[in-house]
């Protein structure tokens, strides 16, 4: 016997998802459904937070360079703090070859930062006159 005009049991994707959720509700009851929803929310939030922090963490310095940069190699700098979800505080010097993570507690690092600040102030004063 053949049925005419019969639709497949699940046509749109949403129907399959709704049917699955309804089936879980019927089998496990409302208490378990609330638990499942809570777990899904926690997993979703964890993924979102991990995506945001891991992306930022990828660009964080994880250790300091060994050695010292010469002044002419340094083109600029940026500051990294632990508060930005990075594992260490660092001064990141920008060079033609890339970035160098340095320890802000070292005298040569802060001397180089001071020289860059002084140079930037002079440029600013010359442009504002």
From TrEMBL:
Q: Which UniProt keywords apply?
A: Chemotaxis, Cytokine, Disulfide bond, Secreted
Whose protein is this, by species?
Oreochromis niloticus (Nile tilapia)
| Chief localisation class | secreted
List the Gene Ontology MF annotations in alphabetical order.
chemokine activity
- The protein, known as: C-C motif chemokine
In terms of superkingdom, the source organism counts as Eukaryota
Tell me the ranges covered by the Chemokine interleukin-8-like domain, including all copies: 57-116
Which BP terms in the Gene Ontology apply to this protein?
Answer: immune response
